[in-house]
Amino acid sequence: MTQNLTAKPLSRRSLLKKVAGVTASASLGMPAIAQTKPFAGLKLRGAAYQHGFFNHLRKYIPEFEAATGMTVDLQLSAFPVYNQQADLELSSGGSAWDFCNVTFILAARWISAGLLSNLDDFTGDRKLTPASWNPDDFVKGAQVPYTGKDGKTYGYSWEGGAMLMGISRMDLMKKRGLSLPKTFDDLMKVADGIHGQEDVTGFVSSNLHHWFLPPYIHGFGGDIFASPPSDIRPTLDSASAVQAVDYYSRLLSKYSPQGVLGYTEDQARAALIGGRSNIFIHSSSWVTSMLTAQDSKVKETALVTRMPTGPKGDFPASNSQGLGIPKNAKNKEAAWAFIQWALSPELTARIVKDTGHASICRRSIIESAEYKRLNTINGQDIGKLYLDVLQQPAVGRNYMAYRTVKEFPLMGDVVNKAVERVVSGQMPAAESMRVAQEAALSSLRRSGAKV
Amino acid sequence: MASVSYESQRSRFARQAITPSLLFLVLVAGLPTLFLIITSLTPGALVNPGSLTDFSDPSRNYTLLLSDERFVGSLWVQARLSLYTVTLQVLIGTSMALLVHAGQGRWQSLRHLFVIPMVLPPIVVAVIWKLIYTPDISPIYHAAKAIGIVLPSLTTHVDFALWAIVIADTWEWAPFTFLMVLASLQTLPTEYVEAARMDGADSLGVFWHIVLPYIAPVLLVCTLFRVIDSIKAFPLIFLLTGGGPGSVTEVTNYYAYLVAFNFGELGYSSAITVVLLSLTVLISWAAMRASRSTQSIE
Amino acid sequence: MKKHIIFWAVPLLLILMLTPFLWLLQMSFKPTPLILEFPPQLFFTPTLEHYVSLWKDGFPESFVNSLITSTASTALALLLGIPAAYALSRWSGPGKFGLGLGILLTRMAPPIAFTIPFFLAYRWVGLLDTRTGLILIYMTFNLPLVIWMMQPFFDAVPDSLEEAALMDGAGFPTVFAEIVMPVASAGIAATAILCFLYAWNDFFFALILTRTDARTAPVAVVNFMNYEGWEWGKIAAGGSLVMAPVLAFSLLVRRYLVSGLTAGAVKG
């Protein structure tokens, strides 16, 4: 039945399509005729949050539908809305979705509660996934959140969040005689030096403190938990954590725009690319828009570089978003066919080339010449910066392990409130973190953790 | 004789007429409330299978509540929010009603337009005020900047965040008091006012001795109903502040929502909700008593 | 002089009060680049681009959902509630106060009190993200509202009116339908409007109990809290669209609305 496969010389991509199509149909018990659409008539339902990547992906979905015969219903919601609904949906064991976005902050919770399907079953099955798909091609740092304690894979990353520093007004820096900040101290000095010049604020950030703060905690020598993922006693009131909160809060309260506590990421980015704020430290796709966005006013004066190093080391945050299959999904093989296609090396390369979307997670693509060419802007090799940060947690100590603790969402909320209290002047850092530590302990105990 | 059989006919019809509704209400309101109380006795969390039927420690949630600073804090925030917003609404609403009433019917048709903030979907009210409170696009902020004043961002300021909510909520609900008081004013017999004026009372005297006592029952009912409604405050907080900065605008209702649907701790949230519900019962009972007694005055 | 101030104070006050709402409306028609501009241009060429892009983004579906759930829950509440209000009005037995309180409570309870048990129940019977599910939970506030509001209207219909018809040999159902109801029709209109309003405006229930299939308009507006953009024009357009039906509806039936709103709280 499978002789047809090797008969004709086919291009790599169409071979993949045929293999996926034919083997899927074989597993469905249908005759392996190249013309048969293996998933004919099936409606695949998936959900994710609104992100440029899915807007790009949507343009290619008709090809996928034509090849497999299924219709793909991809529902996108706003980020906070999606996260809440996905958490409720998966926690209640729902089967409304066949595939869904595995948001980094919730990945650990979902995996440890057994709410996602083990994808190794699919990648290991040569009938479903060709060897060329190569799961190991995904940058390890990006896959960390999706690897369970049992070493199995529960998601594949479609987006890498490598924390980089974007400086929008290098011209102002030059004018004031300021050089690139390399340490935390430098950063504070630069923020102070630029703030107020020509109506520019020295710094900008958004309300996701649980993402922005940890690099400073790590940089000062602390961590969120004592030794994640095994010892999850919170260490929010340690001297390093207090120092980090004090430092970060000063950046927000003294050198950031009015109302920064209420800023969404997009508002922060708007301030950056509009040249109203000088420094923004966030995932690469957010800061590189200084150089790539149409409405960026700072293309000539922008620089993307590594974030400063703390006294105890360099720990830029690195996360990812992934696609996974809920445990009770009804059409798992179809869902895998979709995920496999969406994250295949071929499609990834195409998306990079067609749209310039660069925050993908396949090492082979990131290191390719084409990628390098597309992502060297104004002489800056963004691709290298991106890859270095993305894989950093897998190279040395895994400082991002705190994110793999399933109780992290609780901690994230506590951290957010703690920073808000300090920035809005309600409490000094030490006291705010003491309150945060107590809240974290009671929250963790209430959820059953032994701390 | 004939009326006796009519009575029994009427009773029978009444029983038949009310039964479907009663059954329905038991189903959609009674049972869920019972279910809520039962859930509050478990450490129910969606991610822990079996926790929703774990009755090994029924008073756990309530004990935890007592020592939960965030919960106690939320009750204080709720109390302050209710106090400020109901006071403002009643004051402004009454003033508006007096103003329109003094126009002697010429602006009667306009009173329907005053109703607009009240009928808008609350989430749209939240969107409107989000636009007003965002420094980037709010005309108020830009105007202030133009004359050299840098207004602080209200919704992220520890001292002003709650007031930002109060202002938006008052804008939305002052028309309620306005309508009530206006309706009541329109039934005030003009002879009372004329008699008082002939006795030499000035406007303030008329208001204090004639008008105010007359509308007092309506004001009382208004206040109580608005207090009950203020406990339900959600869209404004959801969209404007998210309970922040810190927990400065986190009312109990919002905290219960976070615990239930962001943390997934349905058992604990049920306990918080039961406390909130008890408060509502108390105030509703008072409201009904007051409303019934004002009716008997009339 | 004072009379002049008072005279003009009212329309001025009205305009002042309505300014926030008018601001939203004008922003929905403003081209995006102009939105962030200051001083804001008060005269500009309006554009429909925000409304058009909303239409393409799944907004119509949420509108239809809102329409269906509001209308159906209103109809159901009226069907069950009107006879019940009559029954309560004619009740002379004990427990009338208690029953009234219970009904009021259902209306006054914070939505989360019902959302938790309903969420668990719906997940079990599969009513999550369905219009039926929403219609059912809307009954928790619509049915009590109908009973609460209609009771005073039935109180106002004297027994003698009924007895006159009964003496002519009519059965009670006929008496109710043909004699009592028409007298209370103004109340029915006001009540129906309020039910539709409260159902349409609901945010909390829809937020928790729906995902994408049964998502209603108010939740869809919030969905524009985009990961990659606070699209102000679109948000303003969304808000304007969501409020348009209730606004038009309210202004159309403003007489009934005002009497309904005042009756609902003051009486009974």
Give me a quick take on this structure.
Chain B is mainly α.
What would you say this structure looks like, in words?
- The complex is a heterotrimer of chains A (451), B (298) and C (268).
- Chain A is α/β, with parallel strands linked by helices and 451 residues long.
- Helices cover 46% and strands 14% of the residues of chain A.
- Chain A contains 22 helices and twelve strands.
- In chain A, strands 1, 2, 3, 4, 5, 8, 9 and 10 form an eight-stranded mixed sheet that branches. In chain A, strands 6-7 form a two-stranded antiparallel ribbon.
- Chain A is globular.
- Residues 1-34 of chain A have low confidence and may be disordered.
- Chain B is mainly α and 298 residues long.
- Chain B is built from 13 helices and no strands.
- Chain B is flat and about 75 Å long.
- The two termini of chain B are 34 Å apart.
- Chain C is an all-alpha fold and 268 residues long.
- Chain C is built from 14 helices and two strands.
- Chain C has helices at residues 2-28, 32-35, 49-55, 59-90, 96-108, 112-125, 131-155, 159-167, 172-183, 185-201, 204-209, 217-222, 232-252, 254-266; strands at residues 225-226, 229-230.
- Chain C has a two-stranded antiparallel ribbon.
- In chain C, α4 (59-90) crosses α10 and α7 runs antiparallel to α10.
- Chain C is globular, with a radius of gyration of 23 Å.
- The model of chain C has no long low-confidence stretch (mean pLDDT 83).
- Chains in contact: A-B, A-C, B-C.
- At the B-C interface, α1, α3, α4, α5 and α6 of B face α1, α4, α5, α6 and α7 of C.
Total beta strand runs of chain A: 12
Name the shape of chain C in a single word: globular
The helix count of chain C comes to 14
Q: Give the radius of gyration of chain A.
A: 23 Å
Largest sheet of chain C: 2 strands, antiparallel
| Sequence of strands across the biggest β-sheet of chain C | 1-2
Write the layout of secondary structure elements.
The complex is a heterotrimer of chains A (451), B (298) and C (268).
Chain A: H1 3-7, H2 12-27, E1 43-49, H3 52-68, E2 71-77, H4 79-91, E3 99-102, H5 104-112, H6 120-123, H7 140-143, E4 156-167, H8 170-175, H9 184-194, E5 201-204, H10 209-212, H11 214-219, E6 225-227, E7 231-234, H12 239-255, H13 265-273, E8 277-283, H14 284-287, H15 289-292, E9 303-305, E10 318-324, H16 332-342, H17 345-355, H18 363-366, H19 369-374, E11 376-377, E12 380-381, H20 382-395, H21 408-423, H22 429-446
Parallel strand pairs in A: 1-2, 1-3, 5-8
Antiparallel strand pairs in A: 3-10, 4-8, 4-9, 4-10, 6-7, 11-12
Chain B: H1 2-39, H2 60-66, H3 69-102, H4 111-114, H5 116-119, H6 122-133, H7 139-146, H8 161-185, H9 190-198, H10 203-230, H11 235-240, H12 252-262, H13 266-297
Helix pairs in contact in B: 3-8, 3-10, 8-10, 9-10, 10-13, 12-13
Chain C: H1 2-28, H2 32-35, H3 49-55, H4 59-90, H5 96-108, H6 112-125, H7 131-155, H8 159-167, H9 172-183, H10 185-201, H11 204-209, H12 217-222, E1 225-226, E2 229-230, H13 232-252, H14 254-266
